[in-house]
Specification:
The chain is built from 14 helices and 13 strands. The chain is of the alpha/beta class. The model has no long low-confidence stretch (mean pLDDT 96).
Length: 355
């Protein structure tokens, strides 16, 4: 099957990944090619050229100073994304869609959804976040033109007032995220931003008397300076934005992985990565985390309750690492995720042929 994968035009699909959307797209593209599919990828500059895919052109556009001086002009970042997605969708509508059997949109931009009806092959959009107003608008104006998949049942429910969506949990490569010995400090991984609340992981681990290591991109420097940097030192370290090999090693040595969503986490890829390494998870029970972290693979705490999270940290460290790993292999694998997407692609193509 010939598949066009659409990701973010702003962030590269390359390590170290900007977030779960990029990591999922990279893993899916690699696995689809391994299974014999032809894959083309539309993603941000600097995407991984070692991926065995065709990287679609990302056109550059620089609006004039006169246009940008308008009082209502958007940011240059907004214009660059708009131009990139508009170019792609117009190319597909102009005949390039015939190169593909299905288009799989993983972006958060409205144009691939709004313009899905302009191309002749089926489009499936994965919903990676809670509802966004520009996507709600696109779906309202192009009802029935796309099929939708959510990364969890919780995310599907969050979108249910807008559209029906099947639920396909994200997956991680369990041959890359290998089990480690554990016994080390707690680990928190992800983007250091307010909605992920890593400062609460620091507070909980200190109350539990468990050292903590944080890793991930500093996506909000103001938040880092106000909430993270003052808490660092002694039993809490920040080790930077790591690639998957370094993260897998860090997680494999950890006694527990801590996640602290201050929003309704759409899936929780960091929890799946930790469990694949045999490391149990202590997490707030928000969004999809109750779907991902099963009893025996971790311990859930009341959302926003740092004292209860400290309890969960101590309890989770007692989980059997073999059982944690087995749960990840059975429920959180890239193989399982790709199997489900292959079935969705096949159903869409069969429906298109029948029509």
């Amino acid at each position: 099957m010939r598949i066009c994968l659409i990701a973010s035009s702003r962030f590269p699909v390359a390590e170290p990944f900007a977030g779960g959307l990029e990591a999922m797209t990279h893993a899916l593209a690699r696995e689809l090619v391994y299974r014999g599919h032809e894959v083309s990828l539309f993603a941000g500059p600097g995407s991984d050229r070692a991926l065995p895919v065709e990287l679609l052109d990302l056109p550059e556009f620089e609006p004039s100073d006169v246009a940008m001086s308008d009082v209502n002009a958007p940011s240059r970042h907004w214009m660059a994304e708009h131009h990139a997605y508009l170019s792609l969708m117009l190319r597909l509508a102009g005949g390039e869609d015939q190169r593909f059997d299905v288009v799989h949109n993983n972006s958060l931009h409205h144009l691939p959804v709004a313009m899905a009806g302009s191309i002749s092959v089926p489009v499936v959009t994965t919903l990676h976040t809670p509802p966004l107003p520009w996507l709600e608008s696109a779906i309202a104006l192009a009802p029935g033109e796309s099929s939708f998949v959510a990364v969890s049942r919780a995310t599907a429910r969050a979108w249910s007032h807008v559209t029906d969506a099947a639920a396909v949990h994200n997956g991680v490569d369990v041959d890359t995220w290998l089990p480690g010995p554990g016994g080390g400090p707690a680990v928190w991984t992800g983007r250091l931003v307010p909605e992920k609340a890593p400062h609460e992981a620091i507070d909980a681990c200190r109350r539990a008397g468990v050292p903590l290591v944080l890793a991930g991109p500093l996506a909000d420097l103001g938040y880092h300076e106000s909430h993270i940097a003052p808490r660092l030192g002694g039993d809490v370290r920040y080790v930077g934005h790591l690639d998957h090999a370094a993260l897998a090693g860090l997680l494999g040595r950890a006694s527990v992985a801590v996640t602290t969503p201050a929003w309704d986490e759409p899936y929780g890829l960091v929890a799946a990565e930790a469990m694949a390494c045999g490391t149990p998870v202590a997490s707030y029970s928000r969004g999809a985390l109750p779907e991902v972290v099963a009893p025996g693979a971790g311990v859930l705490a009341r959302p926003g309750d740092v004292d209860d999270l400290a309890r969960a940290v101590l309890e989770a460290r007692g989980c059997d690492r073999g059982e944690v790993r087995r749960h990840a292999v059975e429920h959180c694998s890239l193989t399982r995720m790709t199997d489900e997407y292959e079935r969705i692609y096949a159903d869409l193509v069969d429906d298109e042929l029948a029509a």
